[in-house]
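Weekly puzzle thread! Below is a chain. First person to post its structure in token form gets bragging rights.
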Amino acid sequence: MIVTTTNGLEGYRIVRHIGVVRGLTVRSRSVVGNIGAAIQILFGGNISVYTKLAEQTRQEAFDLMMAHAEEAGANAVLAMRYDANEIASAVTEVLAYGTAVVVEKAD
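Winning reply:
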């Protein structure tokens, strides 16, 4: 599966547009994780507990989007993007989305 943030794919031509695909996940940090982050905040710098959570959440949304694209018969996702919103205190949704297409190598 090819994934790109661009609207086209150099060296390939689109032979079929499937449509929008997405992966959505909602996450929060545990109380223990928040305590660990609070300790890191006291010392400044990278808050690795939250960095790890953000990366895992984005990866999960990405994987769900990829599964959606594969189920739809795509072999590429164009214009891939992330969106994130806080939906409650310490609860964040992350959406990965893009346009599922079938591409083949251009001659």
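Puzzle host: Confirmed. Bonus trivia for everyone else. The first helix runs from residue 31 to 43.
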